[in-house]
Specification:
single chain; alpha/beta; 14 strands; five-stranded parallel sheet; 3 domains; inorganic pyrophosphatase (n-terminal core); 18 helices; 464 residues
């Protein structure tokens, strides 16, 4: 018997918010529009929700948003003659939802103005956010695990959405150091039901050891990633045949390889919790025969390569979509690798409290920034990446590290403040955030962001 989710969090808002959202969905058995963010977390969340709606017999249309797109959502709302469910976005637009004449359910883990006190909303709008019940949306619950949990509230049969919850959580890096809080509760229950298996294994994927090393972007290995000859040489120095599949290594050989990779990362001053991912706790999905990180990469790749619907279709069991997702993942990996090689060889620009660079690969820029922060840049300040597209708005992504958050950094506030100063909008998490700003506003945005970060990180010259 599956355990009931009502008792997972001892906060009165927790069951209240889910009950209101469930009531709106079950009370309106008609066509719904599901609006989701196009990244790996949003795609995984949409996958879980669409599977649950299909179980209910509800038709549903899934529509992605490609950034902080308040105006686009407003237009979608006006064009939708029925109920809407929004996942992995929307926390900054709570003022928009009451205008829609039909039910709206919002499942978001991002910070919103006034957290943890959401504004009073009319009966036809339900806002479910873990920050309201003391659960950290940066560490303990992503949009996919939130959506997975909501589908369990709809029907306990939806525990089998575990793989999509895990896919989104891994995309949002909530597995680093082990799952915590409500995520851990959900994963433990899924494991108890046989939906997931916990294993220790090597975090390198490819047809051969050499290919796995040279194609690795997470971790990115200086001097080895994107360099097949160096990858093969590295394997041979360890007494390993670079042509062997990683899955055929003995336990001792896999341990030897992992130890060498970890030592190389630590020599490059990569944080221990990130270096430890190479042979840490891993999750296997029996129903798919894949490591959950592989599933996460497939879904993330489709979003970043501009075909998030393929990732959602993969989540719904479409075999053709699975093949297309695998091909797309290769293109995504090569595009991310180009950006990381550029940063490795050319560096980034520095200001007193931040790093920044430009990326012509707009959909991949956030991934490039996050991996560069993890594996290539000094850990004393966050990094911002800008993708300028002529007269179109400029997309901004910001990524940091946990020690920076521990020092007081809040990138959601930084992006919101700097974007507002130039007539744009921003938001997200303390450790990862983004913004959309007018063309030509980059320098002013950077000046405000650097000043705000200086205050947060107690840089003396910023507070003088």
């Amino acid at each position: 018997m599956a355990s009931g989710p009502e008792a997972f969090v001892p906060h009165p808002r927790y069951p209240e918010e889910f009950a209101k959202a469930r009531g709106l969905v079950l009370g309106h058995p008609r066509r719904w529009r599901i609006v989701y963010h196009y990244d790996g977390d949003g795609i995984a969340a949409a996958s879980a929700l669409l599977r649950a709606f299909a179980r209910l017999g509800y038709p549903a249309q899934a529509t992605p948003l490609f950034g902080v797109e308040r105006e686009r959502f407003a237009a979608l709302s006006r064009a939708t003659p029925g109920p809407i469910l929004v996942t992995d976005t929307g926390a900054s637009w709570l003022d928009l939802f009451p205008e829609h004449p039909h039910p709206i359910v919002v499942l978001d883990h991002h910070r919103y103005p006034g957290v943890p006190e959401p504004p009073k909303l009319p009966p036809h709008v339900a806002f479910v956010n873990p920050l309201d019940w003391g659960v950290d949306g940066m560490d303990e619950m992503c949009a996919a695990t939130l959506s997975w949990l909501f589908t369990v509230f709809l029907d306990p049969a939806n525990w089998d959405n575990a793989v999509w919850g895990l896919s989104g959580a891994i995309h949002d890096r909530q597995h680093v150091g082990g799952f915590r809080g409500l995520n851990a509760t959900l994963v433990d229950e899924a494991r108890r039901q046989g939906l997931l298996e916990r294993r220790r294994g090597l975090g390198l994927f490819g047809r051969s050891v050499g290919e796995a090393l040279s194609g690795s972007i997470d971790p990115f290995l200086r001097g080895i990633s994107d360099r097949p000859a160096e990858a093969e040489r590295f394997a041979r120095t360890l007494g390993l045949d670079p042509s062997r599949p990683p899955g055929e290594l003995t336990a001792e050989e896999a341990q030897r390889l992992a130890a060498a990779v970890r030592a190389r990362l630590e020599a490059d001053h990569v944080l221990p919790e990130l270096a430890g991912l190479i042979d840490g706790e891993r999750w296997f999905v029996p129903s798919l025969g894949l490591d959950a990180e592989e599933v996460s990469n497939l879904q993330a790749a489709t979003g970043r390569m501009g075909v998030p619907g393929v990732g959602v279709a993969y989540g719904l069991g479409d075999h053709g979509a699975a093949e297309r997702a695998r091909a797309t993942e290769g293109d995504w990996r090569r595009g991310v690798m180009r950006g990381l090689r550029r940063i490795e060889e050319q560096g980034v620009r520095a200001m007193p409290s931040l790093f920044w660079f430009e990326s012509p690969e707009m959909p991949l820029a956030g991934t490039q920034a996050g991996l560069a922060m993890n594996y290539l840049l000094p850990a004393d300040r966050p990094v911002f990446v800008f993708s300028e597209m002529g007269e179109a708005p400029t997309k901004v992504s910001a990524r940091g590290l946990r020690p920076q958050v521990d020092r007081g950094m809040d990138l959601a506030t930084v992006c919101r403040t700097a974007a507002s100063a130039v007539g744009g909008e921003g938001g997200g998490h303390r450790i990862a955030s983004g913004a959309t700003i007018p063309p030509g506003a980059r320098d002013r945005f950077l000046a405000v962001a650097d000043q705000e970060l200086g205050r947060q990180l107690a840089r003396p010259e910023a507070t003088a």
